[in-house]
Amino acid sequence: MITIFFLVWTLGTVLLTLNVFKPLAARRHSSFPAILISYVTGWLIGDLLPQWILFNVGILLLFSFSDIFSHPIGWGGLIVHLTGWCALTLRLWIIFNSPERLDKKMEQQLGNSWKNAVSNFKPPESIQDINWHSWLNPNTVFEDPRIEIIHDQEFHQENDFKLRLDIYRPRGSRKKKLPAILQIHGGAWISGSKRQAAFLMSHMAAQGWVCFSVVHRFSPEIVFPEHLIDIKRALNWIKKNALEYGVDKDFVVSTGGSAGGHLASLMALTQNRPEFQPGFEKADTGIQGCISLYGVYEFSEPFNEETLYPAKAKLLKIVCGGTPDSKPENYQQITPGNWISSETPPFLLVQGDTDALISVNEAKKFFSDLQAQNTQNSAILSLPLVEHAFDIFPTLTAQCIVPTIERYLIMLHENYINSKGER
Q1: What residues are paired with 255 via a beta bridge?
Q2: What's the predicted TM-score (pTM) here?
Q3: Which residues pair with 382 in a beta bridge?
């Protein structure tokens, strides 16, 4: 019986390791739970590798109390486990060496604007530079003494439901007109947490930015565009209270991941549109740039035979209240590409090549649409071997990629300052 358990465990770890490099659940044929399991296991095992190895060592130690390792099958299984750990370590080594390649890609797309931008936070250049403490204990991002976090500030009440946001800002700063980030969480429009992207927000707050992490109501209680309207209410509140929090209301960048990346994109693309601002139609909802991480850009395609994605189509029926045939206006409104214009602000799109939930082709097509309108200072990064939600925890992957995002934010602000002639 012990042998059977050992073989099952070993086979399971082989499949989980392979899933990190290529998601085993195909979007075209798999159910939503299968795709979700493929994503979660690939993300956690790939990015939380130290914890995964420690967990495996513990399991193997339990097996060592039997006589499994006195047989060839036990030693063979041990070699399989070690091989899997080596493969996963090699993946992280490739990601560890990616910042220089990312820098070159950004310079090719942005030129001197990128070269002149400088962030206080750098990706690790050696093993010693890796922040092992935060990798093993993600909660350390909330303990930075240079920042303060204000939790659960109410910005709107809808019936009995109160919408709240968290504020990350420099501790003790008395400066005025600080640049701001409007951060929108992911969660497929049906869930989510304000704690997402805390790594990015804590870093930017330490560099003199004020970051607002907002929430919206969830489907199925609401259908689109109510999610977007809630975020616009948050932006309206931020601009009304800009003086209190030392924010430059004329410079706000929207950021978000997954469904939050989609909503961040729409915030940048639908500025001051009265149909999305009921009761505050004349409020300024201007956005000066957008960073969308592993965002969602295609909405009718999952229903088409050529690009079928049944799990996503099922979710969109809930979010939009029907199909593209029954709710054509909702699908027209929810699709970011329909709102691109000559007034579109700069975009940075970041997408992992091995994302189990969203194809990198979505980001590439959306970026092509942005280029067709000659959107200035925009860029796209396609990340080899990187999974969905790579930035949620301060893992090695996040430590290597997020500094590039931070530098892009600083570049946007420097361009804004220069355009106003304040330098």
Answers
A1: 183, 291
A2: 0.96
A3: 351
